[in-house]
Each structure stands twice: as structure tokens, then as C-alpha cells.
Amino acid sequence: MCHIHLIPFGAGRRKCPGLPLAMRMVPVMLGSLINCFDWKVEGEIAPGGLDMEDKFGITLAKLYPLHAVPTLVAS
Ligand code: HEM
């Protein structure tokens, strides 16, 4: 059975054994980053105006890296 959305973890007998842990921890980590910080993109970029051009390599990276600056949300 092929689960294409899990392809970042590799496949077959040597696939990532950390998959179950990562599938639980990545949403917690992402949620914490969104919840605890206000994020500002450097420069004046309109919503929807983000440059999504990519650079092909072993992994697919953004051509122009995104610089997002976090500010701690006061609790
Ligand atoms: C988002 C998180 C993670 C990603 C995307 C990821 C991705 C990968 C990939 C692509 C491989 C190579 C698979 C292959 O050769 O087919 C791998 C191997 C491995 N990963 Fe992860 N991994 C993650 C998290 C973790 C965690 C949390 C652990 C341990 C707690 C872990 C432990 C390992 C180990 C030990 C291997 C070597 C497996 C082997 O060669 O038999 N990984 N991982």
C-alpha cells in the first residue's frame, strides 16, 4: 500500500523508523510556533504576493528564501 503523503520518510525496509513520533511531534511543534509567536515577513509583501518560484535540486527549495521574523506573544 502506497501513502504518497508519507514520502518524505522514505519507503521500504529502510524507511524512517521515527515516522510515528514525527507524525505526532511535527503538528505540536508547528502549532506551538504559530501560537507563541507573531510572524512578520521581511519587506512589504501583499497577501498572495509571495514569490513561490522554486529551485530544483535533491530537494525542492524556494528560489528566494522566505525570511519570517518571530515576535514572542505576551502571555
Ligand atoms: C519530520 C521528521 C522526519 C523525517 C522527514 C525523516 C526522514 C527520514 C528519511 C527520508 C530517512 C531515510 C529513509 C530511507 O532510506 O528510505 C530516515 C531514516 C531514519 N530516521 Fe528519520 N525522519 C524524521 C524523523 C525521525 C525521528 C523523530 C527519528 C527518531 C526518533 C528518526 C530516525 C531515523 C532513523 C534511525 C533512520 C535510519 C533508518 C535505517 O536506515 O534503517 N527520524 N528518516
Describe it.
- The chain has one domain.
- It has a two-stranded antiparallel sheet. A two-stranded antiparallel ribbon has the order 2-3.
- The longest helix has 18 residues, at 19-36.
- It has one helix at residues 19-36, and strands at residues 37-41, 54-55, 61-62, 68-72.
- The protein is 24% helix and 19% strand.
- It is built from one helix and four strands; from the N terminus they run αββββ.
- The radius of gyration is 17 Å and the shape is flat.
- A hairpin with a 5-residue loop joins β2 and β3 (61-62).
- It has 75 residues and is of the alpha+beta class.
- The mean pLDDT is 90.
- Bound molecules: protoporphyrin IX containing FE.
- Protoporphyrin IX containing FE binds next to α1.
Q: Please, how many helices?
A: 1
Task: Report the average pLDDT across residues.
Answer: 90
* Beta strand %: 15-25%
Q: Uncertain regions: pLDDT < 50 for 5+ in a row?
A: none
- The span between the termini is 45 Å
The largest sheet is: 2 strands, antiparallel
- Could you tell me the radius of gyration in angstroms? 17 Å
Q: What's the β-strand tally?
A: 4
Give the helices and strands as they follow along the chain.
HEEEE
Helix content: 10-25%
In the residues, how many domains can be counted? 1
Which class best fits the helix and strand makeup?
A: alpha+beta
What are the distinct ligands in this entry? protoporphyrin IX containing FE
Q: What overall form do the CA principal axes indicate?
A: flat
**Numbering strands along the chain, what is their spatial order in the largest sheet?**
1-4
